[in-house]
Design goal:
heterodimer, A: about 475 residues, mainly alpha, 2 domains, about 0% strand, B: about 300 residues, alpha/beta, five-stranded parallel beta sheet
């Protein structure tokens, strides 16, 4: 079920009403409702893959309990590896099997040998990368004794399958979300209104910004050989806003809806396009994934504590794995590697934590230096997005080569003023609200009529500019 | 919770008002004129209505006789034009209607249109029977393949269209389709906007009602029925001053059959034109398309009228 679908607009009020009718005193029943609703939500896409979530939940729940009762380190480690193998095994099979087979066959061909292994017609279960990482975080935290394993399977099922964030995150840590299933959730008016507001803003980002930018990004990327350098730049620009609007929009909707049910999810985006360097960008983009890799991969590998070699190795590993997490294609690997190259100089010069505060904090306008820094960061990000969006690495290089020609300075063939106007409006609102959790969080200072007029404007824009209903990009990851 | 529900309801109510205002102000949906069935069983529009068509700046208007477009200043030397949504032509301004376009080309004649979407061939003949009281020198009936299929209940029964039951030799007049719902939708523009934008998918029902364009083999199987239809028309209607204007790419079988039963025919041909006659988003003719149609109809019509000594 998509957040931007009619079905969801019917589904949500029904679940919301039943949930609060059950009452906050009956936690178990509320958890049961969440689990059922989540399975319906997921099964709407393909019910067969519900067994996968159920199996994954059962395995990690059982291992969690066994880890608690087991003291022998070797056995504990073995249990952890069972969980890792099962979860990553599913992920590897569904997501990467064909990629590895193709790559193996290609490498044999490259060395003049023929290898005949058939690829399989595999459907990638929606959101598998998200819930796999979520359940893994549970087992690892229990193993590291950072978290007490739960005995309540219903709560655990609800935690793994929690519908607002099941298919595209934020990737919740068990330490943050699971305990919320064990305690009473109260309906708080302010939180519910705030949640609705955030969901509305998310829907605007997705439907108005991302889907409309997608039309032009697809048009340009799919016919890249037909366009001038300036139009190709425009295509990359549209994709940058498409992916940001799409993914951060989904996160906003997920966080907003969770608040309606009394849950607090982690922030996933913090205005990344206002970053002054790439390190800041990565502290603000897909925060739940970056911190997951930091905590469960980068730090166990030694982080930045070792010598230069170690730093370089670990940085490349984390960025490449992060790229690979996004999809089974070399484009994502190159995208990850490119970001590692952007990031390394800052790390090696110890300047990766220079910009930890908010840009132009307490001011309306940034300084010229900040503008330059933000523009540079945005531009190098834009170049990296070309790899992310391209069908293959060769196309990405050709795209960049064709972009940096003299035609970069001519008027673009595609220049949709309305969409550019909407993107400007969006960027303006994001800039004004950059000190909040999300752009319109602090709108509360306005009087209600003004506030509501703004909401009406968003709703009207959502309905007026609804393009073709498009799936969220991150569903495929 | 009470406060939340109260404010949510208030917000939705205000949103509905704002939405209604925006939809009306921006003409986000077309205004659709209300219909009525006259005492002869013909479905036409309630007179003197006006409204906007989505995407156009022009206003459509229903005349005193219940048909879209202006009435001629005189009924002398009258040529009537009957057809479905192509003649109704809400999507184009009045100057792009067949009547005014033909008048420009044949100023000695007066033209009157009677168009309504969904009109079948038999219904067009019924309309022509009533318009014959105005003693037109010629009647142009614009038709395509579907108009023939939709005329016969034995091929597909359609409640809202006038059809003929060939077994009983009986005309079955169309009924108003969901008049209550239509009344609500026409008045509550926002609801109509959502209804258009997010159509409720009664997939099986629609499939059942859909008339698929039969292939040639099926046409052959149906030819007896269509032939019977023409025979019925020949006996029961005056066909001597009727000219059938066939849309481009109409099945040649129908054209042949019409000629065999005494109709004059004009066959439109868009194949030699590099420019499309239709809208990108809709199969109806643009103003350019209507102009080309009028050019071709004028040529055919002048020949017939010459033959009649006009």
């Amino acid at each position: 079920m998509l957040f931007n679908s009619i079905e969801f607009f019917i589904f949500l009020p029904i679940v919301f009403t039943i949930y609060w009718l059950i009452g906050s005193k009956r936690i178990k029943q509320q958890n049961l409702l969440i689990a059922i609703a989540s399975y319906v939500f997921y099964g709407w896409w393909d019910w067969r893959f519900l067994f996968l979530i159920l199996f994954s939940s059962l395995v990690d729940y059982t291992i969690g309990l066994k880890l608690k009762s087991e003291d022998k380190p070797s056995k504990r480690k073995a249990l952890l590896w069972v969980s890792i193998c099962v979860n990553l095994g599913f992920l590897g099979f569904f997501k990467y099997y064909n990629f590895f087979v193709d790559s193996l066959v290609d490498s044999f061909t490259f060395f003049g040998r023929e290898l005949s292994i058939n690829t399989l017609n595999i459907i990638l279960p929606v959101g598998i990368s998200f819930y796999t990482f979520q359940t893994l975080s549970y087992t690892i935290d229990v193993y590291n004794k950072k978290l007490e394993p739960t005995k309540d399977f219903l709560a655990f099922m609800a935690f793994v399958s929690f519908f607002p964030q099941l298919v595209a995150g934020p990737i919740e840590r068990a330490t943050n979300l699971l305990p919320q299933f064990h305690v009473k959730r109260e309906f708080v008016y302010k939180d519910a209104v705030d949640g609705l507001r955030q969901a509305l803003w998310g829907l605007f980002k997705k439907v108005v910004i991302a889907d409309n930018c997608a039309t032009y990004a697809n048009m340009i990327f799919n016919n890249q050989e037909d366009y001038s350098g300036s139009t190709l730049l425009m295509g990359a620009f549209f994709f940058a806003f498409q992916i940001y609007g799409d993914f951060s929009g989904y996160s906003d909707i997920a966080i907003g809806i969770s608040r309606l049910f009394g849950f607090n999810l982690k922030r996933n985006f913090a205005f990344p396009y206002f970053s002054r360097d790439i390190a800041e960008f990565w502290r603000r983009w897909h925060i739940s994934l970056s911190t997951w890799f930091r905590d469960y991969l980068y730090i166990p590998l030694g982080g930045s504590r070792g010598g230069t070699k170690m730093k370089v190795r670990n940085t490349f590993i984390i960025f490449i794995v992060s790229g690979f997490w996004h999809g089974a294609n070399w484009t994502f690997v190159v995208w990850g590697a490119l970001n590692a190259i952007y990031f390394l100089p800052l790390l090696l010069l110890n300047k990766n934590r220079v910009n930890t505060n908010l840009v132009a904090e307490g001011k309306y306008l940034p300084t010229i230096r900040e503008v330059f820094q933000m523009a540079t960061t945005f531009f190098i990000t834009l170049i990296a997005w070309i790899f992310f969006r391209a069908d293959n690495v060769t196309n990405a290089f050709v795209y960049i080569k064709d972009m940096f020609t003299s035609s970069l300075f001519i008027k673009p063939e595609i220049f949709p003023l309305t969409i550019l106007g909407l993107v400007t409006f969006f960027a303006f609102i994001e800039w004004l609200g950059r000190s909040g959790e999300y752009a319109i969080e602090k709108i509360d200072f306005m009087k209600r009529p003004v506030r509501w007029c703004f909401y009406f404007l968003l709703v009207v824009l959502i309905f007026s500019f609804t393009g073709e209903q498009q799936e969220f990009i991150y569903f495929q990851f | 919770m009470k406060k939340f529900i109260k404010n949510s309801i208030l917000f939705i109510l205000l949103l509905l008002i704002v939405g209604e205002f925006v939809v009306r102000f921006t003409h986000a949906v077309s205004d659709i004129p209300r219909r009525t069935i006259d005492n002869t069983g013909i479905q036409k529009y309630i007179i003197n209505q006006t409204g906007y068509w989505k995407g156009g700046d022009h206003k459509w208007k229903i005349n005193d006789l219940g048909w879209p477009g202006d009435l001629p200043t005189s009924f002398d030397n009258l040529i009537t034009i009957i057809g479905d949504s192509y003649i109704e032509n809400f999507m184009n301004p009045n100057e792009c209607h067949q009547g005014p376009l033909l008048k420009k080309r044949m100023s000695d004649y007066n033209f009157m249109e009677a168009g309504r979407s969904g009109v079948s061939f038999i219904e067009a003949m019924e309309i022509s029977k009533h318009l014959d009281t105005l003693q037109p020198v010629q009647t142009l009936i614009y038709v395509n393949d579907n108009d023939f299929y939709e005329s016969i209940t034995e091929i597909k029964k359609m409640r809202d269209i006038t059809q003929i039951n060939l077994e009983k030799n009986q005309i079955i007049y169309g009924e108003m389709k969901s008049p209550g719902l239509k009344k609500v939708l026409y008045n509550w523009k926002l609801l109509y906007y959502f209804y258009n934008r997010y159509p409720i998918n009664f997939s099986n029902k629609n499939k059942e009602n859909e008339i698929k364009k039969p292939d040639f083999d099926k046409v052959l199987k149906l030819k007896d029925k269509i032939s019977e239809l023409f025979k019925f028309i020949k006996i029961n209607y005056n066909t001597s001053n009727k000219t059938l204007v066939f849309h481009p790419r109409t099945n040649k079988y129908f054209i042949k059959l019409a000629e065999e039963h005494g109709f004059k025919t004009i066959v439109l041909d868009s194949s030699k034109d590099n420019k499309s006659w239709t809208f990108d988003y809709d199969s109806h003719w643009t103003c350019y398309g209507h102009e080309q149609v009028a050019n071709q109809v004028t040529i055919g019509l002048i020949e017939y009228l010459k033959g009649k000594g006009h």
